[in-house]
Amino acid sequence: MKGKIMICLVNLDKVGINKKVKNLYMNEFPKYERYPFWFLKYQSKKKNSDFYVIYDDNEYVGLLYLIYYKDIVYILYLAINHSKQSKGYGSKILNQLSQTYRGKRLLLNIEKIDSTAYNWEQRIKRKKFYKKNDFTNTNFEITNKHVVYEILFQGKEVYENEYHRLFKSYLGSILYWFLS
Questions:
Q1: Residues 52, 11: contact at Cβ < 8 Å?
Q2: pTM score > 0.90 for this model?
Q3: Residue 60's closest CA among 35, 36, 89?
Q4: Which residue among 54, 56, 144, 155 is least crowded, i.e. fewest CB within 10 A of its CB?
Q5: Separation of alpha carbons 94 and 91, rounded Å
């Protein structure tokens, strides 16, 4: 990073570094939270999602996967390469998303703070990060594969029925039913 951060989001289809992106994805997200990589690439060819590679100038920084539903932009995955962490990239990306999608509601989930969890400290750090970046808890939580997730939003509040409709729209009725 040379001085000022200049974030650039490039659609995964337009770059040839699938291996780096896939490795980051596989290493940063536990298996129970991951969709198959091929599925993400396939879905991102549709109008309701985008799979981005994040650059600072020409330097690879991380990945971002967004799902769109009505006025909601759901951040399914955001990961910063280890060598780039704690340098302001995450906040810069969230700020850029807030500007790009002004007037829309940003939404994401994080593992619920649980003092018995093996990654308790990481969960606390993650929640502080999103709170610092103006994300607020919704009035509902989601349980998926025995893990409880807090749903955070920025902008106008998002409701549980909208959350479910977003995923039903993204996955399709049959796959949504199967995975729920």
A1: yes
A2: yes
A3: 89
A4: 144
A5: 5
